[in-house]
Recover the amino acids of this structure.
């Protein structure tokens, strides 16, 4: 027993990776490889998100519970940047709506300028109110005009039609902008104000995305977004792919007759094309994740990182030594949120659609936090591990819940309504389950799977 | 044997020894001060007497009984009262409520004690409906003393009552402390303001590195050459 | 010049659609905000599970209401929910005391950082939310019975002879009366009773409270009891007024926090004032004033647009914007709360 715990203590990282590989392989063999790969891909995206949150929490103790909002902003930017534009909508009201938004921006800039230069508060308010009303004067008509353009198919401005990787970058920038706004206002105040404000901005971002159809069709969703990898259909028709599939299955195909062979090849082609596409995504996401972790670790060891650590370990002393704690925290909050934004953009690229209704604080904010805590708050690689485990159990918890319901039914014998009830509501058990994991880890293993070395909580 | 006695006290913070066999004591109707350089363990003596910090050796006696193992609340019930250095009032509660909180553990009628406090500090009666946080520094200190007196303590422990207040207020506070002594309390205080404190004290303990360096009456210590040289700047 | 009747009509119109609903909603928010502020000042953390606790209290009330109705234990014309509220409060109290004992107490005793406890409260929030949805399902439920109106708009019109009616719903009247009662009792408790004063002392200066012999566990238990009472009543009143659906309750968290911060975090009076600031702003900003101005302005100037400042769908955004403005202009809130 003692030996086992000793092995665990000294090889936490290796063992966690091995367990995860085993779990994914188990799903691959028993359920399907496509499922295993899609779990893996979402694990990677979650890991990037968790990394962003972990940077905020681990480097600066910032409690961000607006993850959902930053992820949605990242997703939105995929629509804005890489979706094809809708020329008719642009000509119907594009300029007008841009003008309206510029007016609002102008009035905000003006009011900030006025209040910075100690003008009467009345002028500040007047500038804002005037800005708001002049914005609305142009905005309402323009939005209606845009939404009226072929509402069943478009009804929005569309995007810029630029390459997808640019959209990821833009996702990071958009999220960073929102983070700057929130951070600027709340950092330096009580630490829970940031939590409350980030919670609020996430809700507001979603309200706007859902209700302003001209931006991204609201709850009507944008589908068929461009992808950075080939389409399955194209793969199935390209000769090199067919050759590769044949080469992989030489032995089994050679036993079949010509007719059977064509049929079997068709099935294999379909299967392999799906797996191939998923693998492309995996490679892409993995590369981004690794790059981000390497950059985060490099930054942490740089002079900048030393300052971060100094502030983290003793905020009062650091600020007495003239370090600008607030500015530092703002930087970290922006960087972390940008990473969450990038992950949000990757997610939308991966699914190929932007569906505002899928953004729920449970799925995004809360789940990511459970990942960070379980993985080891403050430890970058830990949050990756946490993301893998938690996402895996999240996906597999529905089958587990159903299994539980069935067991209850078997145990109770005749159908007494309890099991039917549980079956219907099984997915709500997830909330309770995840909440319990979070509370138990926080209480009994606050370091998580990979505790951050020499970190005082 | 004095009314409150700390005998041969040893205490540590973690592994750092702070008290290394010091002894203090005060009788009723007497004012004793503990003075000494920073880090000598003056405030720690207070904590040990109150039971906020456990002792590893020695004993604390109240009226001849050993109270070393009792909890802070039990000691307060037996007649100890403490006025901390900072944050010693409830700022958003009225003066009257502050005093009432002092009597929280009492279940009898405390009107008599209240009258006693008001006689001692008439300004508190005048301002009894005002929020304590809005009073001046000296008046706040009176509220703090008054709150401590509400348990009808026999012993008052004061931790640096004059820290951070202006010289005029210091005089006012020392006058208040003498009033407490006149009310037949045993008053033990820790003070930075060595000269002035010793001049009004009946007894003084000079602590250095957790041990008694000098003990004597306030006058004797003031006239002691060594004490003058080391602690009073000549 | 508009006639006297027109002015009266305009006022009645505004009362019916803005003032009375805002008063009702504000009272519901106020109770929730008061609970948050109490937890904040005694236990020193922002309780994110408040809204879901309200949903829990309401869920218990709905279950008990169903049971009472099935047993025929009802009073005709009187909402059964109000009959069972005391029982629901007992259950909610037990639930909150259990979370205190099993969850929060550990962090309190170990002097954990407040942000850690906030995180813990988010864990509790999801467990409570899950529990409520597991029991009640995600759909909206109406559990108000008895008379829906004290008087209807039509009765009012017949009585007053005006063309606009001011209806008074049972839920509105109960909300205002019950909220007044609950707030009154809480303030009486805090100002006049010994344990209530001990709570204030504890909130003011924890160390000194301990030195005065105040028992922290008792203070904390009493706080949760008060919080359970406020939480259950707030939840039930909101549910009677707008129907019960777990997600609706979850959305209340933002306006509740906004109320608390606008009023000054930690200040009970501030929480109440803040709640009304939020509720009136929400209603006033999202109301379409077209008809109101038709009464007041001469025919030539009658507006043809809706005259709505912000779309109703942004109701909850209003509280956020107010929150941000307060953080920018006066982070301590109206009644100087604790900022650092």
């Amino acid at each position: 027993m003692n030996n086992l715990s000793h092995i665990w203590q000294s090889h936490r990282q290796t063992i966690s990776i091995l367990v995860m590989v085993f779990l994914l392989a188990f799903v691959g063999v028993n359920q399907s490889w496509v499922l295993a790969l899609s779990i893996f891909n979402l694990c990677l995206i979650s890991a990037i998100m968790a990394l962003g949150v972990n940077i905020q929490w681990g480097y600066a103790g910032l409690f961000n519970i607006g993850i959902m909002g930053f992820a949605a902003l990242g997703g939105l930017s995929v629509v804005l940047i890489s979706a094809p534009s809708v020329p008719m909508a642009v000509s119907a009201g594009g300029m007008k709506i841009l003008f309206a938004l510029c007016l609002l921006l102008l009035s905000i800039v003006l009011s900030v300028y006025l209040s910075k230069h100690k003008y009467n508060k009345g002028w500040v308010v007047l500038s804002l109110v005037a800005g708001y009303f002049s914005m609305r004067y142009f905005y309402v008509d323009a939005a209606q005009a845009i939404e009226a353009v072929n509402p069943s198919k478009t009804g929005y401005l569309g995007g810029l039609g630029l390459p997808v990787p640019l959209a990821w970058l833009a996702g990071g920038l958009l999220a960073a902008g929102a983070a700057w706004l929130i951070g600027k206002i709340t950092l330096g105040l009580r630490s829970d104000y940031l939590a409350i404000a980030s919670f609020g901005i996430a809700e507001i971002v979603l309200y706007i995305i859902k209700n302003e159809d001209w931006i991204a069709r609201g709850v009507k969703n944008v589908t068929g977004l461009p992808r950075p990898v080939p389409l399955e259909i194209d793969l199935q028709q390209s000769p090199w792919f067919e050759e590769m599939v044949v080469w992989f299955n030489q032995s089994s195909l050679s036993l079949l007759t010509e007719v059977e062979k064509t049929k079997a090849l068709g099935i294999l082609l379909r299967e392999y094309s799906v797996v191939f596409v998923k693998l492309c995504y995996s490679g892409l996401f993995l590369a981004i994740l690794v790059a981000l972790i390497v950059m985060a670790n490099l930054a942490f060891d740089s002079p900048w990182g030393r300052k971060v650590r100094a502030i983290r370990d003793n905020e009062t002393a650091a600020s007495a030594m003239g370090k600008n704690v607030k500015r530092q925290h703002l930087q970290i909050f922006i960087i972390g949120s940008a990473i969450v934004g990038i992950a949000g953009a990757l997610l939308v690229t991966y699914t190929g659609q932007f569906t505002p209704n899928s953004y729920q604080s449970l799925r995004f904010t809360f789940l990511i936090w459970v990942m960070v805590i379980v993985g080891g708050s403050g430890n970058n690689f830990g949050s990756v591990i946490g993301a893998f485990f938690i996402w895996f159990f999240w996906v597999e918890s529905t089958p587990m819940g159903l299994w539980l319901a069935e067991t209850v039914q078997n145990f109770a014998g005749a159908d007494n309504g309890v099991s039917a009830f549980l079956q219907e509501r099984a997915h709500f058990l997830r909330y309770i389950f995840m909440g319990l994991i979070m509370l138990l880890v926080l209480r009994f293993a606050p370091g998580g799977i990979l505790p951050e070395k020499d970190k005082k909580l | 044997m004095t009314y409150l006695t700390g005998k041969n006290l040893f205490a540590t913070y973690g592994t750092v020894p702070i008290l290394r066999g010091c002894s203090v004591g005060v009788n009723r109707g007497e004012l004793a001060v503990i003075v000494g350089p920073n880090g000598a363990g003056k405030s720690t003596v207070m904590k040990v007497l109150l039971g906020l910090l456990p002792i590893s050796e020695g004993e604390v006696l109240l009226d001849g009984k050993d109270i070393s193992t009792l909890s802070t609340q039990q000691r307060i019930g037996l007649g100890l009262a403490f006025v901390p250095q900072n944050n010693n009032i409830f700022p958003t509660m009225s003066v009257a409520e502050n005093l009432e909180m002092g009597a929280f553990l009492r279940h009898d009628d405390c009107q008599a004690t209240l009258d006693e406090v008001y006689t001692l500090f008439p300004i508190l009666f005048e301002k009894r409906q005002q929020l304590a946080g809005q009073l001046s520094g000296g008046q706040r200190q009176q509220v703090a003393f008054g709150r401590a007196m509400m348990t009808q303590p026999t012993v008052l422990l004061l931790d640096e009552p004059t820290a951070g207040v202006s010289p005029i207020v210091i005089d006012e506070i020392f006058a208040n402390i003498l009033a407490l002594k006149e009310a037949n309390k045993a008053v033990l205080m820790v003070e930075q303001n060595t000269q002035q404190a010793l001049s009004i004290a009946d007894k003084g303990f000079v602590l250095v590195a957790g041990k008694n360096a000098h003990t004597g009456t306030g006058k004797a210590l003031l006239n002691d050459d060594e004490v003058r040289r080391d602690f009073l700047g000549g | 010049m508009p006639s006297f009747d027109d002015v009266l009509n305009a006022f009645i119109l505004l009362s019916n659609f803005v003032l009375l609903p805002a008063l009702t909603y504000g009272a519901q928010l106020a109770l929730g905000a008061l609970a948050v502020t109490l937890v904040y000042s005694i236990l020193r953390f922002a309780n994110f599970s408040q809204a879901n606790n309200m949903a829990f209290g309401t869920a218990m009330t709905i279950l008990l209401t169903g049971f009472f109705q099935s047993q025929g234990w009802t009073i005709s014309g009187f909402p059964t929910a109000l009959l069972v509220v005391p029982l629901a409060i007992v259950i909610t109290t037990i639930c909150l005391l259990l979370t205190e004992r099993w969850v929060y107490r550990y962090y309190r005793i170990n002097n954990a950082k407040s942000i850690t406890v906030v995180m813990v409260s988010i864990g509790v929030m999801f467990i409570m939310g899950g529990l409520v949805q597991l029991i009640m399902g995600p759909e909206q439920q109406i559990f108000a019975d008895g008379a829906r109106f004290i008087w209807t708009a039509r009765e009012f019109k017949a009585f007053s002879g005006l063309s606009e009616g001011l209806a008074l719903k049972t839920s509105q009247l109960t909300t205002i009366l019950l909220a007044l009662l609950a707030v009154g009792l809480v303030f009486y408790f805090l100002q006049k009773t010994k344990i209530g004063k001990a709570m204030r002392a504890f909130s003011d200066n924890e160390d000194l409270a301990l030195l005065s012999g105040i028992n922290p566990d008792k203070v904390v238990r009493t706080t949760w009891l008060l919080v359970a009472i406020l939480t259950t009543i707030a939840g039930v009143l909101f549910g009677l007024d707008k129907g019960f659906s777990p997600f609706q309750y979850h959305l209340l968290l933002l306006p509740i926090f906004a109320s608390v911060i606008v009023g000054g975090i930690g200040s009970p009076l501030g929480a109440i004032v803040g709640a009304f600031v939020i509720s009136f702003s929400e209603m006033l900003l999202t109301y379409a004033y077209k008809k109101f101005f038709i009464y007041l302005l001469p025919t030539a100037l009658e507006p043809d647009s809706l005259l709505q400042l912000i779309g109703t769908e942004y109701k909850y955004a209003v509280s956020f914007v107010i929150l941000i403005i307060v953080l920018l202009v006066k982070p301590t809130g109206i009644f100087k709360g604790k900022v650092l």
User: Anything to note?
Assistant: Residues 86-157 of chain A form one domain. Chain A is about 80% helix and 0% strand. The mean pLDDT of chain A is 86. Chains A and B do not touch (no CB pair under 8 Å).
